[in-house]
Design goal:
The protein is an all-beta fold and 119 residues long. 32% of the residues are buried.
Length: 119
């Protein structure tokens, strides 16, 4: 199994930046892709970004390209989400997820971290 723990959320003002972290433990060698998702109040969870754990290739939802950056640190088994120029509509619970080899869906999830952006 893979355990994921997010951190770095908080209350910020519009225009501020925030960096989320996701620390992975357990069978991390079985991880193919790490992703960030978010869920705003009253809305469905949506994909934000993903990164290939081994290759480092990244993918973003079009609406967030240029403001959000996903990265990973193998030595720390950690994935990051750098969020710049935050907007009130970025307010959501942000979740880290892992997709292991051979799986077509993300099969491990963190508990989420709240990000609130005030106007």
């Amino acid at each position: 199994q893979v355990q994921l723990v997010e951190s770095g959320g908080g209350l910020v003002q519009a225009g501020d930046s925030l960096r989320l972290s996701c620390a992975a433990s357990g069978r991390t060698l079985s991880t193919e892709t790490m992703g960030w998702f978010r869920q705003a109040p009253g809305k469905e969870r949506e994909f934000v970004a993903s990164i290939s754990w081994r290759l480092g290739s990244t993918y973003y939802v079009d609406s967030l390209k240029g403001r959000f950056t996903i990265s990973r640190d193998h030595a720390k088994n950690t994935v990051y989400l750098q969020m710049n120029s935050l907007k009130p509509e970025d307010t959501a619970v942000y979740y880290c997820a892992a997709r292991t080899f051979g799986k077509s869906i993300y099969d491990y999830w963190g508990q989420g971290t709240q990000v609130t952006v005030s106007s």
